[in-house]
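Kindly inspect both lines:
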Amino acid sequence: MAVHLRIVSLTVTTAETEQTYRFDRPATVITGPIGTGKSSLLMLVKHALGGSAMLTPAVREHVLSVQAEIVAGDEHVVLRRTIEGDTADTVNLLDPRSLTLERSLPVRASEGATTLSDYLLDALGFPREQIAARRDGAARPQNLTFNDLYAYVYLQAREIDRQVVGHLERWFETKRKELFRLMFGLTDSALMELKRTRNQLSERLTAREAEHKNVSAFLAASDPRSDDELRAELTHLRDTLDRADAALASLRTELEEQTAADTALRAELQDAIRAARQADEEVSAAADLVDARSAVVAQVQLDLSRLARSATAIDQLSPFEFVVCPRCMQSLAARPIEDGHCRVCLQPDPVEADIDPAAIEETRTALQHQLEDAQRIQRADEEYLHTTQERSQQLSFAISSLRRELDAQTRDAVAPRFDAIAEASSRVAALKASIDATTQLRESWARVRAIDADIRSIKAERRQVNRDIKEKSEQLKASQSLLGDLSDDFGRLLTGWNLPWIERAVIDRDTYLPVVNGQPFESLQASGGGLATSVNLAYSLTLLTSGLDHSDVLVPSLLVIDTPRKAFGNNPSDRQRAAEIYSRFRTITDAYGDRLQLIIADNDPPPIADNSFGRIDFDYTNPMVPGVDHPGPDRVTRMENQIENQSEAW
């Protein structure tokens, strides 16, 4: 049976007031002139249910929030949603009796969060499924949401003569078909899971085939040899590398042996260098000592010379009585001199003890002995210096000889081996590089083989999934008869309205869309919008009644129709067809009663005299948004009357 969905009431809240519109009858017709808010009321219903609705500037400027009292399955709840702001992304669920907040649900899906769509689908008992779809070139399953299902419920005025359940929107096409299959039992969770798996396998297959193509192109461009040729080349390179490694190891062994033979000579050279360094230090110390001894000898010699000069001066000059200065030859006769002082220097005359000749001689003798001792030590130090210098020269010569000998051995035995080792090492490195390059190419070939195996595995798995899909579809084939009945009902309803040019109408078994006279819905545009509107209405009404008649059909029991007479004329034929459409509305509401709900927005009242429809009437004085001074024709008339009254008063 149809999933039960009913709008009980809609409350519109502005800053000044609020207005509640009730839908108590199975069918409610909303009437009023253009611009009074009929379509806006239906859009507010969609907004309250979490949809993305087109809201007019008047609604956005004046309406603060909207709340819809609904019945979804066994759930009776009030949904409140603000119009603008951050809070518009959530819908509050209120208790219908106390209007207390029960919970808030987000409109948009997020990780791990239950959305309003999830809540409504669960309440309706409609399966929450994912469909196999592609986005941005990749397989990414998409959720079927309540808003997707609502496309089968709401016939918008701007779409009613243009497309059927959004079939022209390419992004919605897959969802539209899967929803139809779910509603009429043409698919189930298992079949949809199989289709998602097939989609994922196809995505993997495409990726692996592209990878296979890229790797193959790389191999073709980098090296024309086959995998077998590369394997043979790799074996040859490894054998050559083994021989090169053996030759290199032999050269290194010979070098180590030669190096061991040079060890004694190197040790002897090191000992000679250390001895020479010590000898140089001894030479330096001896030279410093000789310099010190020479200084002592020179000082003693100076002291002897000074003593000799003093004795000579005393002996030579003391008998003389100076009358002139020996320096400047000036006369000293007129110079006042104290008694007992020298006539020349005016110092006190020395006593006899200070110029004792014996004391002077004793001093000379002591200095002479000291000089002899100093000269003897100096000669000994000079001999030691000479000895150390000779030893240092001998060690320097030994070092030079040892170095020449070691250089000769290195040049004749070690250097050639070093060159051979360098050449062998270079060959080993080149062989290893060739082996690495060949191994990398073989790894690419191994990757190609692995990709080939994976492609074969994916194809086999996809074939099995396709067989499972076919088998599962066969199990659901019984529902195809229901689709045939649905197509027959649609054809009878549409042809019963006596529309011009329509001879045969069916519902296509592949697209699930109406086909008229063998032509798709889009071709009806050439025959006029009224004809397309009639076909769309017949299609939706047929789906609705089929859901009410069959227990296993999940079509929602609500149908919202905006402008069912769009593009209809006012001639007798068009009025007659409009009356037939409304008669159909009345017939199904009489037949099914509260099991269904029709909400119809139309510019004019129903073209049939019947009180079976509920009514919501708008005009320019009382538009849908409460408390708004509507700029309609009535307002212009009122302004003219006010001006006329003012003129009369003047």
Summary: The chain is about 55% helix and 15% strand. Residues 357-475 form the longest helix (119 residues).
